[in-house]
Write a structure and sequence with these properties.
The chain is mainly α and 172 residues long. 79% of the residues lie in helices and 0% in strands. The chain has one domain.
Length: 172
């Protein structure tokens, strides 16, 4: 049995494999964001991985990159505000800066929790993407995608409506 070489299919498979390899950078991004909760500049190093995803035009991961970018922005802005207030309070000698340290500690805890939750959501998304790519590659392009959550909810609502109509007709 001879196999015919299909260059377009080979290129598609190679591209998919590169995109799947890029999903391995997601834990690195969130690890940097965890450290960024303590010191925002460390979180900025995640930009190297995020830019790599944009440069390679990975359609599967590109849309989800708003999540770590948002976390990074919030961390940076909040820590910048706390630093500015701390410097101003120290320079003017108005009161104790202990409250700033408490706010900083609380913000670290909050950002660690938010980063953890968002990373779990992102990992579920990446897992689904990998599964869809694997199914596509193994099925030679004949993939039947399941119903979305919205479609399943709509079907369930319609089923309940039909049951209620039948119940109302029986009572008449």
């Amino acid at each position: 049995m001879e196999y015919e070489y299909d260059e377009q299919k080979a290129n598609t498979i190679a591209k998919f494999k590169k995109w799947v390899e890029q999903t391995k950078s997601i834990p690195k991004i969130y690890a940097l964001l965890f450290f960024g909760a303590v010191a925002a500049p460390i979180g900025w190093l995640a930009w190297f991985y995020i830019i790599e995803i944009y440069i390679r035009r990975n359609p599967f991961l590109k849309n989800a990159m708003a999540l770590p970018i948002t976390i990074m922005t919030i961390e940076s802005i909040w820590q910048g505000i706390l630093l500015y207030v701390n410097i101003e309070m120290t320079a003017s000698g108005t009161g104790s800066t202990a409250i700033i340290h408490v706010a900083y500690f609380c913000s670290i805890i909050l950002m660690l929790i938010v980063t953890f939750i968002v990373s779990k959501v992102h990992f579920v998304l990446v897992k689904r993407i990998n599964r869809n790519i694997r199914n596509y590659l193994l099925s030679n392009g004949d993939v039947k995608f399941g119903k979305t959550i919205k479609e399943r909810a709509r079907d369930k609502i319609q089923e309940v409506k039909d049951t209620l109509k039948e119940g109302a007709e029986v009572l008449k």
